[in-house]
Amino acid sequence: MSDDAALTARVRAASHLTGTFLLRSGKTSTEYFDKYLFEADPELLAAIVDGLTGLVPAGTEILAGLELGGVPLATLLSQRTGLPARFVRKKAKEYGTRRIAEGGEVTGRRVILVEDVVTSGGAVLDATKVLRDDGALVEDVLCVIDRSEGGRKRLAELGLTLRPLLTRAELDAAAAR
């Protein structure tokens, strides 16, 4: 089994759940990839970040992890690449700095968004709008899993390129092995 196939199998085994799940998009699914299960395993998280490192496009200046699942990914990816990290909240906090993007400025910088799982792309679209309003140059999105449920198309409509480590088809193929 190749290293890529082994990682795919590990991610699926760690995070694939069945049942009835309400997704952020509002849809109901009988399958769910629980990112906390792969992010809480230090060895698996390290292997995932190793894979993501190769997907960071040249010229990236800042890694922006989306609350909450993108934060550990961006943190470890920052440590591996030497690129600074930012942490993007779902909404600005109502005290202190009142910022939506924590960790430093983004204005005029090439920012890549880091997310755990992309389904419809809603959280990424929200973060892109806010960061672009703050003057960030946002063109790319890294994610661990693309559920292949329309997110890539929606992101492309805003000029975003989705760079997934794993796709739903790859995870399904791993289950068939």
TrEMBL record:
Entry binding sites for 5-phospho-alpha-D-ribose 1-diphosphate: R24, R89, K90, K93, E115, D116, V117, V118, T119, S120, G121, G122, A123
UniProt: orotate binding residues: T119, R147
Gene Ontology molecular function terms on file: magnesium ion binding; orotate phosphoribosyltransferase activity
Catalysis: reaction(s): orotidine 5'-phosphate + diphosphate = orotate + 5-phospho-alpha-D-ribose 1-diphosphate
Broad enzyme group: transferase
GO BP terms, alphabetized: 'de novo' UMP biosynthetic process; pyrimidine nucleobase biosynthetic process
Pathway(s) of this molecule: Pyrimidine metabolism; UMP biosynthesis via de novo pathway; UMP from orotate: step 1/2
Enzyme Commission identifier(s): 2.4.2.10
Residue stretches making up the Phosphoribosyltransferase domain: 62-152
Keyword terms of this UniProt record: Glycosyltransferase, Magnesium, Pyrimidine biosynthesis, Transferase
Pfam families registered for this protein in UniProt: Pribosyltran (PF00156)
Gene3D superfamilies for the chain: 3.40.50.2020
Cofactor(s) for this UniProt protein: Mg(2+)
UniProt-listed NCBIfam families: pyrE
Subunit architecture: Homodimer.
Role, per record: Catalyzes the transfer of a ribosyl phosphate group from 5-phosphoribose 1-diphosphate to orotate, leading to the formation of orotidine monophosphate (OMP).
HAMAP family with a match to the protein in the record: PyrE
PANTHER family: OROTATE PHOSPHORIBOSYLTRANSFERASE, URIDINE 5'-MONOPHOSPHATE SYNTHASE
Protein name, entry field: Orotate phosphoribosyltransferase
Organism expressing this protein natively: Candidatus Frankia alpina
Lineage, top ranks: Bacteria, Bacillati, Actinomycetota, Actinomycetes, Frankiales
